[in-house]
Amino acid sequence: MGSAGVTVLGHDVGGWLAMNVAANDQQVKGVTLLSTPGRPLVDVLADGFRAVYGQASADRFRATVATLVSTGQLPAAESVRPEHQAVLGQGQTDILEGMFAASPTADAARVKVPAQVVYGAQSNTVSKVDADNLARAIGPSAQVVPYEGGTNLKEVVPDGEAVKFDPNDESTHVFGARPLVHVPRDEATLGKIVTFLRSAVRGGTA
Question: Which of 47, 90, 133, 200 has an alpha carbon 20 to 30 Å from 62's alpha carbon atom?
């Protein structure tokens, strides 16, 4: 890190890491949170499963997470619904327990530098509610930036049949286990992010 300081950006739960870095490192002058959950992760993901697969999928997901939290164990892979397998990876129980126990607004309240909270207006998971929760916890230095897309500055992935998670097939390693679709990023929003980060690292705000 240089003496002039740095800015950090985190996507999805990586935004939680970015907030912790911003709160603990004085060289960090600004942080961008891209599609970062502002509610407990089980609520965010259950909303996504409900939107795509229906209420039964959301309820089953909540029950599986409750089992993980109470016992420290996931059900056997064959007992986990196909659309949940991309999220509830076998052999990752320690990581998953930490993620589901996290309090994003508590982390956000510790951020004392300018913050940009970006969310996709068409996302089925991280939404305006999450962005507003984080911005409210951070305070007046936070700005909320919506864009017309999904969760990663790309267009929404078209509807399609769920694909069973396959550890040897990267196209199934996505939320909802749908094939990856390569589409352009939202250049206008990307420009806002670049402008904000440049301004923050120079000691101003965008």
Answer: 133
Reported as type and span, the H/E element at residue 145 is strand 142-147
Q: What is the pTM of this model?
A: 0.81
What is the rounded radius of gyration, in angstroms, for the C-alpha atoms of the chain? Answer: 18
**Domains along the sequence of the chain with CATH:** 1-38+105-149+186-206 (3.40.50.1820)
